[in-house]
Amino acid sequence: MALKLYMHPLASFCWKAIIAFYENDTPFEPHIVDLGNEASRAAFQKIWPLCKFPVLRDDSRDQTVPESTIIIEYLAQYYPGKSRLIPESPDLAIQTRLQDRFFDLHVHVHMQNIVGDRLRPADKKDPTGVQYARSMLQQAYGMLEQRMANKTWAMGDQFTMADCAASPALYYGHLVEPLTNYPHTFAYLERLQARPSFARVIEEAQPYFQYFPRQ
Questions:
Q1: What is the maximal distance between C-alpha atoms in the chain?
Q2: Pairing of strands 29-32, 63-66
Q3: CB–CB of 197/204 below 8 Å?
Q4: Which partner from 63, 85, 100, 147 sits 20 to 30 angstroms from 167, CA to CA?
Q5: Which residues are bridge partners to 153 per DSSP?
Q6: Phi and psi (nearest 5°) for 158?
């Protein structure tokens, strides 16, 4: 198979890329990377020395494509499908990319900082960093609450790359900093979870949820 995706079923940024594959029924071969396994890590490092996933390998074009956003852009360019995840309109495309960056930088990253702190030994915890991450999530949630008051998806009626980014960011974000006080944003998360592409990703991750640090 031409497209190989190096990923892990529990990794949030991998979810973002996989949703894009499923939205367009784009065939790919998943390669699960276990960074805790020396052989698996070494093999992946030969593909991408930074050892961060997801990474797409397209043998037919001899291209290695890292980063979830760039993978989605690459698929849209070279393997387009029925669902246009990046709008044709230049103005809408820019706004979609902006929302993609918003979810990655202002929700996703802060969520990961909280989760990462849970994985640290007791003497390495960073309560100040966690407090800051929570406050930034609350700010982002507040902005989203206004934005999603009259929208079905991040860009309106069309499901786009921004929604691919929002899905894991809000799913895991809700686990670490609940959306209880943000009904419009929580309703948006429920719509995302009901979307077949994202529902499939969540189902495939079920065997790995035991490893997620909930406290």
A1: 51
A2: unpaired
A3: no
A4: 63
A5: 156
A6: -100, 130
- Looking at residue 29, the DSSP 8-state letter turns out to be E
Alpha-carbon gap, residue 169 to 136, rounded angstroms: 13
Residue 98, phi then psi, degrees to nearest 5: -65, -45
The whole-number pLDDT of residue 1 equals: 61
Which token pair is 113? 């900082």
pLDDT of residue 99: 98
Report the distance separating Cα 189 and Cα 177, nearest Å.
Answer: 13
Judge if 3-78 and 90-195 fold alike in CATH terms.
Answer: no
Coil, strand or helix at 179: coil
Domains of the chain by residue range: 3-78, 90-195
DSSP characters for 76-121? Answer: HHHS--SS-SS-SSHHHHHHHHHHHHHHIIIIIHHHHHHHHHHTS-
Q: Which numeric CATH code is attached to 90-195? A: 1.20.1050.10
CB 53 within 8 A of CB 34: no
Instruction: Give the list of residues 6+ apart from residue 169 with CB closer than 8 angstroms, or none.
Output: 12, 103, 104, 107, 108, 111
pTM of the entire predicted model: 0.96
| Domain 3-78: CATH class, spelled out | alpha beta
> What sign does the dihedral 9-10-11-16 (CA atoms) show?
positive
Task: List all residues 6 or more positions away from 150 whose beta carbon is below 8 Å from its beta carbon.
Answer: none
Phi-psi region of 99 (alpha: psi -120 to 50; beta: other; left: phi over 0): alpha
